[in-house]
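As a warm-up, study this chain.
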Amino acid sequence: MSHSLLERAKIAAWYEWTKSCVAVQRKFHAEFGRNREAPDHHSIQRWHAALMETGSVKSKERERQKAARSEETVATITEHFVEQPTSSTRRAATSLYQSLIDTARVASE
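Now compare it with the structure written out below.
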């Protein structure tokens, strides 16, 4: 279950004050009701550490750069399938040291 930013901030502040995950879980149930699932001790400590380090409990947005296929890679894969048209995509990827996904995408183009 996800917790709102306000809840995370309160939880991190409570942990700073009590230094006890159990006390924070009890306080969470007292404030938000027994029907809500209290966060586990890993989440409490992670949110507290984030608050102390960055001043925020907001999750980091992970950015992943998309790997670009070079012309050389495309040419190598294309050449492989011209020479060996019955070769499987998996075998081609393994023999060319390329990812299976890139090999399949180039082969389907």
